[in-house]
């Protein structure tokens, strides 16, 4: 897999396969980009090495023997949750969302904010267990603010970003600061992806239009009922999503409440979407 500043390869370690995330070298980046990437690399390694949970992708360490900067982690054969659902569209989506919520709950209990929750950062193993990945901008909830411009330029998260990240003055701040409430908002947009196969605001062609809609309190709309039910998207789950993407961060539920609702709706059954991704009106 290839990203703007990193590449991921499959490697062999002892008797198992591993993922090798190679960070772009200074020669491939501008001076400022290089400093930002190095900061993210070391920050990700420092936080990730302390995390142990079934829904957090396992971290094995840092390697510099093959490339200048490498992060070695568990190999997830089914890829991202979006790739998994493309190949296996009948999978139980609520079960996968329970996994994500469990991983996020573990982080929040440690006062860690993931800060980049989206389907591209959720991987699935061969046991169909989902786990969070990419802790490059994860932070302690007490850490300093970050600028939204620098964050989005490297991670492309505008469609998942909470309104108070897009405009910190909304909550009386001068700079954007990631909080657990921001993670909850991003989780709701990830839930939209999982249930529809489409990115948030899929009908918008650019980030500027997305930002305008978010700040105007526009959100995704409920799919036609028969289509929604075909993927397990019940009225209860939709109400949860609406609460999670509330414009006011103080009104969003905490992750344990999100998990309780998801568990109450998990029927453990497969679903049968008519198409995948879903064909929805623009």
TrEMBL record:
<dbReference type="InterPro" id="IPR051681">
    <property type="entry name" value="Ser/Thr_Kinases-Pseudokinases"/>
</dbReference>
<dbReference type="InterPro" id="IPR000719">
    <property type="entry name" value="Prot_kinase_dom"/>
</dbReference>
<protein>
    <recommendedName>
        <fullName>Protein kinase domain-containing protein</fullName>
    </recommendedName>
</protein>
<feature type="domain" description="Protein kinase">
    <location>
        <begin position="1"/>
        <end position="275"/>
    </location>
</feature>
<dbReference type="Pfam" id="PF07714">
    <property type="entry name" value="PK_Tyr_Ser-Thr"/>
</dbReference>
<dbReference type="GO" id="GO:0005524">
    <property type="term" value="F:ATP binding"/>
</dbReference>
<dbReference type="InterPro" id="IPR008271">
    <property type="entry name" value="Ser/Thr_kinase_AS"/>
</dbReference>
<dbReference type="GO" id="GO:0004674">
    <property type="term" value="F:protein serine/threonine kinase activity"/>
</dbReference>
<dbReference type="InterPro" id="IPR011009">
    <property type="entry name" value="Kinase-like_dom_sf"/>
</dbReference>
<dbReference type="InterPro" id="IPR001245">
    <property type="entry name" value="Ser-Thr/Tyr_kinase_cat_dom"/>
</dbReference>
């Amino acid at each position: 897999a290839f990203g703007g500043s990193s590449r991921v390869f499959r490697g062999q370690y002892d008797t198992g396969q591993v993922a090798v995330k190679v960070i772009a070298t200074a020669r491939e980046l501008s001076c400022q980009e290089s400093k930002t990437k190095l900061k993210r690399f070391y920050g990700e390694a420092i936080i990730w090495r302390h995390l142990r949970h079934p829904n957090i992708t396992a971290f094995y360490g840092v390697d510099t023997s093959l490339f200048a900067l490498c992060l070695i982690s568990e190999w997830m054969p089914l890829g991202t949750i979006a790739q998994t659902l493309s190949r296996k569209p009948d999978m139980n989506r609520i079960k996968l969302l329970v996994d994500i919520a469990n991983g996020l709950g573990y982080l929040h209990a440690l006062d860690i904010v993931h800060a980049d929750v989206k389907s591209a950062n959720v991987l699935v193993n061969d046991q169909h267990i989902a786990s969070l990945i990419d802790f490059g901008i994860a932070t302690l909830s007490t850490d300093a603010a970050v600028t939204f411009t620098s964050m989005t330029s490297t991670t492309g998260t505008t469609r998942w970003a909470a309104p108070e990240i897009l405009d910190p003055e909304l909550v009386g701040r001068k700079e954007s600061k990631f909080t657990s409430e921001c993670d909850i908002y991003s989780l709701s947009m990830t839930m939209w992806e999982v249930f529809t196969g489409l990115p948030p605001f899929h009908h918008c062609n650019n980030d500027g239009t997305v930002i305008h809609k978010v700040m105007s309190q526009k959100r995704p709309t409920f799919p036609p009922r028969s289509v929604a039910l075909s993927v397990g998207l019940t009225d209860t789950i939709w109400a949860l999503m609406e609460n999670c993407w509330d414009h006011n961060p103080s009104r969003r539920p905490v992750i344990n409440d999100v998990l309780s609702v998801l568990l109450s709706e998990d029927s453990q059954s497969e679903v049968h979407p008519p198409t995948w991704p879903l064909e929805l009106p623009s």
